[in-house]
Input
Amino acid sequence: MSRTRLADDTIIALATPQGVSGLAVIRLSGKDSIDITDKVFAGKRLIDQPTHSVHFGTIGEQNKIIDEVLVTVFKEPNSFTKENSAEISCHGSPVIIRQIIKLFLKNGARLAEPGEFTKRAFMNGRFDLAQAEAVADLIHAENDNARQAALNQMRGGFSNEITHLREELIHFASLIELELDFGEEDVEFAKRDDLLLLVGKVQSYLTRLIASFDQGNVIKNGIPTVIAGKPNAGKSTLLNALLNEEKAIVSEIPGTTRDVIEDEITLGGVTFRFMDTAGLRETQDVIEALGVSRTHERMKIAALILYLFDLSNTTIEEIAIEEARLKAIGRPYIKVGNKVDKASKQLLSAINDQDFVLISASSKTNLETLKKEILSKVNIQEVKQGDVLVTNLRHYQKLTETNEALERVVTGLNSGITGDFLAMDIRQALHFLGEITGTITSDDLLENIFANFCIGK
Ligand code: GDP
Output
């Protein structure tokens, strides 16, 4: 692979979370990482040990031992970064971690940038860019489906198939370019029919991948869900009850939940991204009005609306009016009858034949039924080992761009355009495909991608 190599200095970072913990892992990578570790480690000489071996000893300098540790040695190319690496398991005290890292800095290591370990793994050809990005997705996966989708992508996913199809396309582009070299002579190295077949094959693969993004996006980012209803219907109370913590403002004063608060819950492996709202009340209040129009906007893009009716303070007629408005938005919704504890028997019997989930948000009554109803409204299939799913917006965009370029190839082939134009369209498709796997990259793109990683990964 023609990636420019990074500087091979030795980088160090804490790979486990900051704070007090039982153990912490400090990670080093770079040509000299094992030598540098040998300078501060008292125990066996690590550089003489085989790869993937673990050694007990102490870390410190002169007469000062900082901690007793285990060091795992990785010899290039058998490590995550394909460089010499060491992992130090020490006790999880911030003081120890700080002192050990400082000692390594003194001895020639430097602090790693966010994502630098993964960036080195990519640069050294350990995996392609799409797989490197999946590493970040794996770490940040918030539910089991997202974890499985990221793991599948990290372990290969669509990368191999795309690389393979790209090579086939390159072959055709070269043949066509060869024809161009022959100028006026009437030669045809690249059989147009075969090219059309290949492009069809690539397109059908891409179309499947592109279509998987609908599900992939929801799995990764959660299902956009809106809790709506009149002021005081109990929206904040319900959100809190669902999140099980006091994240939203609960107040006796109508319309105090002014801003939209986003939060997530995971039910049965599916993440729902809740957007709390300011209610649907018509109002003169400027801030409130902003909130209200935003609620409408949010409802229009929601995959699911939980609409709360305040059963302690409404009538069957009002309910009908509200539901008509709700229906007009045209999104899936659940009718939640809240404050069932204070509802009149009369109202309860009047709505008896309607599709209500009756709850009391404040006393958390019947929330399980509501959760089941929420889950039943979405159709998320379980992601299995080996399923290939596009969850990354950048990949989705590049796949779409590739497909569009290939569409131009097909149009060109059907209308018999000249080889130079044909080659140009194929080259463009190749460019977009290359951007997915990272065969074609720019510093900006890489910086952008790896800056989103955490330090130590
Ligand atoms: P929002 O404006 O829709 O967000 O409503 P809030 O969540 O702020 O609730 C308004 C008031 O209704 C608060 O005083 C809550 O304690 C109260 N409330 C919420 N749910 C229930 C319930 O199930 N039963 C009763 N009795 N009161 C509730």
About this structure: The pocket of guanosine-5'-diphosphate is lined by residues 229, 231-237, 250-252, 257, 279, 338-339, 341-342, 360-362 (CB under 6 Å). Confidence is low (pLDDT under 50) at residues 245-253, 256-261, 277-285. The longest helix spans residues 192-221.
